[in-house]
Amino acid sequence: MTAPSTGFRRALGILTIILAGACRPAEQAPAGGDVPSAGLAAIDTAGLMAHIRVLAHDSLLGRAPGSLGEDRTVAYLESQFRALGLAPGNPDGSYIQKVPLVGITVQGAPAMTFRKGGTSRALTWRDDYVAWTKHVAERASLDNSELVFVGYGVEAPEFQWDDIKGADLAGKTLVMLVNDPPLADTARFGGARMTYYGRWTYKYEQGMKHKAAGVLIVHETQPAGYPFAVVQGKTAEQFDLVTPDKNMSRSAVEGWITLDQAKALFAMAGQDFDALKAKAATPEFAPVSLGVTASVTLTNTLRTVDSRNVAAVLPGSDPARAGEYLIYSAHWDHFGVGEPVNGDSIYNGALDNATGTAGLLVLAKAFKAAPPPRSILFLAVTAEEQGLLGSAYYAVAPLYPLAKTVANINMDGLNQWGPTRDLTVIGLGASELDDVASAAAAEVGRTLRPDPEPEKGYYYRSDHFNFAKVGVPAFYAGDGVDYIGKDPQYGMQKREAYVADDYHKPQDEIKPDWIMTGAVDDLKLLMTIGYRVATVARWPEWRPGNEFRAAREASLAASR
Question: What value does the mean pLDDT take over residues 316-324?
Fold first, then answer.
């Protein structure tokens, strides 16, 4: 590994001074699951910001998987866990879980061509469309593939909804709308809340299911939840888990096209985009062949990478329950060095997710001062930005049995704008973890709030989702929106400005107006929740009727 830069060593030295004496003797845990005061006292703004400054520093080169930035990030995390006196989280005696990835990079700027008869339309790479392949191959292409509009591409029998209607889509390229069908009937698709049917990952899975040659999603900022600039970031190297059989069964080409290009495509087909979009929001919709073909050839460079999840464990204080685990997770990765924006090419990911990873280290220090009866696994996962890959790998190759994993608490972006009266819980109402959180919040004069932007599908956009899918009750909290001493609109205004100006851009850096007292409040609350979950006799469960409850019951039954 190349030696860290002078700036990195300086930041590391400053943090070492701040964290001196981090490991203190544990206090006796009081009855009732109350967090020992030494634990909460270990959570402060100085320690949190010191970690963030290191993790968001230019010397970490944007923390891309498979890069020098990964080497430096992993070395830093491992050194901090070791300095705290936490045991290696991998039973093999290391702090590392290798995550096998394949990196695929499209070369050049290939044009995509739409044709109808003697008329053609060329789409410009990155400006008009973005595409990639998950095939582990040097070339992937569409060759005059028939374009078919399939609306939202949803097959949801529980909602009596079928956009496919039995159509044969093999070898064709599917044009889809993002998000769920927008319905006034809240009994279908959860009202304003995006279901998994609305996620872009589901759309590509539908292409694989129906043996389509390609899938193109029409980008619209509001239903996608982010501007097209975020999609443009996908022109860099794309990673996936090394599972060649699965990858080769996917559509050859996956991508997005801009709304303007979609409207032009529909006009070329003699169709009206707005009219067909409206039709797609009705149960009667059926696929529409556009009479237009698509052609593109992607030439790729390939490399395999052993990326790394970093894991440390704090053994439980009760021998009878030390074999049961609570997992705190946060993703350490971001986008590395990429396309310059306003002269800056390092995608530092200060909020996303240097803050969450720093929070993981702060909580590790806090729990070391106050070990609960059950064990705590602190898991910093890789490749979240590539499709939740590090946590997906852990879910299929867990270091500790999932049937012995009590719950997951995930952190993906901490509040940097000051204290709030509330705490946003993504997926509020899903499990009994909310009961623990509600009681803990009430004790400090705070309330839980459901996601104020449920249409953006945040429940499916961070690592807790992979734990949920295998049945582990998962809790994912975001910052609140009711800021103390601020205008009622302040919180949402700050959110919207971040998404528009900083999200997945080099501009996601530490800002002069950051006030980390709110993040400290949130971390103390997350520690209280976790401490109680790691203390109480009965494990938290999914609510009856929850989509993940069956997976949990099957996992527990299989372990008996």
Answer: 97
